[in-house]
Amino acid sequence: VASLDSTASPDVRRQNLSLALAAALWHGPLSQASIATLTGLAPNTVSRLVTDLKARNLLTELGQEARDGVGRRGTLVGVAGQSVGGLGLEVSTDRLAVSLVDLTGGIAFERQRRVNNRSRSVSRTLDDLARLGRQALDWAEAAGMRLAGVTVAAPGLVDEPGHLVFAPNLGWADVHLVAEISERLGNDRGLSIQADNEANLAAVAEYWHGPGRDWGDYVLVSGEVGVGAGIVIDGRLFRANCGFGGEFGHLPVVPDGPPCPCGSRGCLERVSGLPAILAAAGLDADPGQRDAAIKLLTAAAGSGDAAAIAALDQAGRWLGTALSSIINLLAPQTITLGGVFGPLADWLAPAIWSEIEERAFVARFYRPQLVVSELGAVGAVRGAGWTSLRRVCEDPTLVPVDRSTGLSRASSA
Ligand SMILES: [Zn+2]
After folding, report:
1. What contacts 106, CB < 8 A, 6 or more positions away?
2. 296 CA to middle of ligand 1, Å?
3. Which of 110, 153, 334, 346 has its CA 20 to 30 A from that of 174?
4. Average pLDDT over residues 281-295
5. How far apart, in whole angstroms, are the C-alpha atoms of residue 71 and residue 192?
């Protein structure tokens, strides 16, 4: 392997390895000839790249190609399951979650804990999150899975270095998530750790291992206690300045509306987040007990309860008003309803459409589609895991060639 592509510079080699791995990831299992066609690389180069990726346990042989007329049958290669994992951790207002995912889209280990983090200290919450993370790391170690990295999802503004600047619904400000989690994980393994906004991660999850690649440009609107959005344009997350884009829940929709912990008033999430819907429906349910609250709400609306139906209709109208701005601004092909908006979509969608038809003139000239997230509540934590793996897709040499029988981890270099 040391002599691989000795004529190519390390950068070109890394780029070619990344191209070949991406071809297998998106189109595999496939033959080396198909990789050459997809990547535009010479067959000899592809052969060497595949040998290298197999030595790193990133690709594996998956049988023979079906014979079509003349010519030799090629060996099919695809991404190897469970050779490399990405760890996602999520802190949310009402839960802590961990997901260990692999390159095939498989979920190796997943746990979540319902807990009201709004009434607890930052330090205790992060202690518990790290404890979940260590369970996953132990699982990976026992299974011989190498770790590409860790990504922490949080409900607030996270700047590029992984610092949580402000999370209004948690009441957290200025928390160095990456440093705090690294210390708590006892990160002597040199794992690469990053952090991002939960709605951003939920949006990329749909692209990586959901139907997102068929959606064109899309905006995933995620409802919980707060409301967030992830914007994917040309297959890439729109991060905006410092990664602060996508604060959809704080679009002002009611000029003199209720005050918001963000400091403004009449923000979308104050009138269409789960607590607002429950209050308007007159239901005595704790929004922190998300699943129970949704069950109560859908049962009431399903049985024709006028207050519940009116509350959902009103929330849909505010959502439709805010989405009209998004459509006039970005003209996305798809709007995806995620989080609690998924199970409530049957009641929200008619009101959303009615506002869009009235307010988004741009939508009269193309047909945006409104769909429901397939991943739902696990989207953010899985998106965090897959984001951890993206480093390896961009630079497969981060995973060392497997020369030993023992466990070796992805280098953080
Ligand atoms: Zn606000």
Report:
1. 81, 82
2. 27
3. 110
4. 90
5. 45
